[in-house]
Specification:
The complex is a heterodimer of chains A (71) and B (472). Chain A is mainly alpha-helical. Chain A contains two helices and no strands. Chain A has one domain. The longest helix of chain A has 33 residues. Chain B has one domain. Helix content of chain B is 69%, strand content 2%. The radius of gyration of chain B is 22 Å and the shape is globular. Classes of the chains: A mainly alpha (71), B mainly alpha (472). At the A-B interface, α1 and α2 of A face α4, α5, α12, α13 and α16 of B.
């Protein structure tokens, strides 16, 4: 019973640790990184070219008027 | 064990029921695609020779989180080109309801009680929202670390700390979400894209890609002697075709374990983040013709979004070429998934010998959802023109409606994979060097062949033709 409770507690602590880690990265580290001049200029470049670098497949890309017509 | 991605007893269902479920998924997918077409209307133009007006009446109905930099809350507000940002709460509820409706028949067939379905599906959906939130952070998005990675991470975090709660387990059916997502994905694989650049595009994508796929798989089996043929196939397809989506499709077709698909996706995303910076740099530094460089990028970088980002560095025309070559290559995914499913069905499970299996056995083993995938692709590629509809019609349905549902299904699937994956199992793949070596050798081989073909097609044989297309 004690062993079960202790395993449960260590699992909960590990989950809390992971949540804190994820929150720190996404709420502090990544926003700070986004403000670095080199990263910011690249982000602005992508935005100005309407590039979605996270697209998995071509249907997720913004339509580009410059695509050659399908013939 | 017939269940793709799974060896876990909690999600395994008997082979006969698996076949029935596959057909059920094909049916649900077909109905969903038909319903989606009803939301798009086409009005003929009054001007002769002008294209008809196509309207999507379900525009912005399904939720798509926006990118954010330092305030995650901004992800929940749409960024319209005109007007004020709109809260996406309603769209999220509609998305929850739409996907839930698609899953109800599957849950019913599996004997999942309504209470378990609602509780399990709601938690998975919230985790999927969190995964999208993580993936839409601008820096994460910039380096193409897609939502599937974060969905997997969230699932892994829960299952390897407090364990997957029992009430969630009935809905931890990642393979089912993937199959349904793949049937819808078929509608996005449009064969009309094949001729977008003519011969140079086809040669660069459709000749090099199968050669790289087959030779890499052969190298993995015969030279590296990788123990798991399905891992070898998933890495080869992921690296040679289009990254994550190819890994998902071929993984399902060859019944790869979920850890194998997760590993292949992780490696692909990591290398893609590097290559999308390094490859345009090489083109610029070597003074290579940007059009040739763009075709090379389109033929070698795994992910579509990363190709768009790398191509944009070389200029507008180059970006067009890179995107189009990638788009043509993406069409191969259906053919390759079908080929892999057939090849895997013919292999003798004990000896790997393809001569020992009869036709009826091949049919029995063939994953039926692949028929739905190919059927959707063929229907959306050719039916509109047979019915005299504008070719854009199918693109609007798949791009603006069904792809949104497919993305959510893939996200739910990877949350589920994480929830049923033991980190130690995944770690085994990370510690063995052979799969990583296979990826690196395959990618190097792909870069050499693609560069040779891109130079021949875009730099020598069709250089003038490509320039004239781009100047229009």
């Amino acid at each position: 019973m004690n062993a079960f409770r202790s395993k449960n507690q260590s699992g909960t602590m590990a989950l809390l640790g992971c949540v804190v880690g994820i929150a720190t990265i996404w709420l502090i580290v990544l926003p700070a990184t986004a403000n670095l001049p080199i990263v910011r200029s690249h982000l602005e470049f992508l935005e100005s070219h309407r590039v979605n670098a996270a697209a998995m497949f071509y249907t997720e890309l913004e339509p580009k008027d410059s695509f050659p017509p399908t013939r | 064990m017939h269940s793709p991605y799974g060896t876990d007893a909690s999600v395994a269902i008997p082979p006969t029921r698996q076949v029935h479920e596959d057909w059920l998924i094909v049916g649900i997918g077909a109905i969903a695609l038909m319903v989606a077409t009803m939301f798009v209307s086409m009005k003929p133009s009054n001007d002769i020779g002008k294209k008809p007006e196509i309207t999507n009446h379900a525009k912005s109905t399904l939720a798509k989180l926006e990118s954010w930099k330092d305030a995650p809350g901004k992800a929940f507000y749409s960024k319209p080109k005109i007007g004020e940002p709109q809260f996406l709460g309603g769209a999220l509820l509609i998305t929850f309801a739409v996907i839930g409706t698609l899953l109800i028949p599957i849950a019913y067939a599996r004997g999942i009680s309504p209470g378990s379905f609602l509780a399990g599906y709601s938690v998975l959906f919230v985790l999927a929202i969190l995964a999208f939130l993580m993936s839409t952070q601008e820096v994460v998005k910039q380096y193409n670390f897609e939502y599937v990675l974060w969905a997997l991470l969230l699932g892994l975090t829960i299952s390897n700390t407090v364990g997957t709660p029992n009430f969630l387990k009935p809905m931890v059916i990642g393979d089912t979400f993937i199959k349904l997502g793949l049937v819808l994905f078929g509608a996005e694989v449009l064969f009309g894209k094949l001729i977008a650049l003519g011969a140079p595009g086809i040669f660069t994508s459709w000749v090099v890609t199968p050669i790289v796929l087959i030779t890499t798989y052969w190298f993995g089996q015969r030279v590296l002697k990788i123990e798991s043929p399905s891992l070898n196939m998933v890495i080869s397809a992921d690296m040679s075709v289009c990254g994550v989506s190819a890994a998902i499709a071929t993984g399902a077709a060859c019944r790869a374990k979920r850890e194998e698909v997760s590993y292949a996706i992780g490696v692909s995303l990591l290398f893609t983040a590097v290559m999308m910076i390094v490859q345009p740099y090489i083109v610029l530094k070597t003074g290579m013709d940007p059009i040739v460089g763009a075709a090379w990028i389109g033929g070698t970088i795994d992910s579509t979004g990363a190709v768009a980002a790398a191509g944009a560095v070389l200029g507008d025309d180059a970006a067009t070429v890179a995107n189009t070559v990638k788009m043509i290559q993406n069409v191969l995914i259906g053919v390759i998934a079908f080929g892999v499913a057939t090849y895997w069905s013919t292999r003798d499970r004990e000896s790997g010998d393809s001569n020992k299996v009869g036709i009826s056995e091949i049919w029995t083993r063939f994953p039926k959802f692949v028929i739905g995938f190919i059927g959707a692709s063929l229907a959306f590629s050719f039916l509109p023109s047979l019915l005299g509809w504008d070719s854009k019609f199918a693109e609007v349905v798949s791009k603006e409606i069904t792809s949104q549902v497919r993305i959510w299904l893939f996200c739910l699937a990877f949350v589920a994979f994480g929830l049923e994956t033991n980190f130690r199992e995944l770690w085994k793949y990370l510690c063995v060097g052979k799969p990583l070596f296979l990826y690196i050798v395959g990618q190097a081989w792909s870069m050499i062949l693609s560069l040779a073909m891109a130079t021949l097609m875009f730099g020598v044989l069709y250089a003038d033709k490509v320039k004239s297309i781009l100047s229009k």
